[in-house]
Amino acid sequence: MSKKNIPGSTFIADASGLIPTILTQQELDEREFANINQAMTKYLLGSITEKKAPFTLTWLHQVHEEMYGQVWSWAGAPRQVETNIGVLPIHIQTSLQQLLGNLQFWRDQKTMDPIEMAARLHHGLVQIHPYPNGNGRWARLIANIFLKKMKQTLVFWPEDDVRGETSFRNDYMDSLKRADAGDFSRLIALHRQYQGK
């Protein structure tokens, strides 16, 4: 199975972590889609309680496993190798814990609105890049779970455009790169643009 490497994506050359027997990229995409939809249904339909979404380190990994666990054996387990983006593997857990601490601080200080907090959370998760694959979708879902927990309208990302070679993906990737340099304005604007769509 070969997968085209799209700029800004994590290329996976090793498919040995696949749980089912998948022979084509289409089969992989279909099974991932079904698995991700189960996780989205769990968290985005109905109410969100502290027990359901405690925003702890363990829970972050649990959500990734819920999104990809029926497809990849490594789902929910932090990567052990360096990738083209992301922190070194030995810093993943500490970086995630620090980001969760920042999120709590932002909430306590009440100096930024929930959509800005969600955008900063989204960026931080992508920047850390804890897993071999699925980091972007996982980060977008976590940010939406946060918005739902804060009783805010969800952001409806055009996922097909995020995954393909599109002008939206270019804009999205550019907004993440700007956030890497400390300018969150474009990423926040994208969250606002797709909120409630």
Rg over alpha carbons:
16 Å
Main pleated sheet: none
* CATH homology superfamily name: Fido-like domain
Q: In percent, how much strand structure appears in the residues? A: under 5%
Outline: globular
The domain count comes to 1
Please state the structural category: mainly alpha
The SSE order reads HHHHHHHH
CATH topology: Fic-like fold
The CATH architecture comes to Orthogonal Bundle
> What's the number of helices?
8
Distance from N terminus to C terminus (CA atoms, Å) equals: 35 Å
Mean pLDDT: 91
Report low-confidence residues grouped into runs of 5 or more.
1-12
* CATH uppermost class: Mainly Alpha
Number of strands: 0
The helix fraction, in percent, is 55-70%
Oligomer: single chain
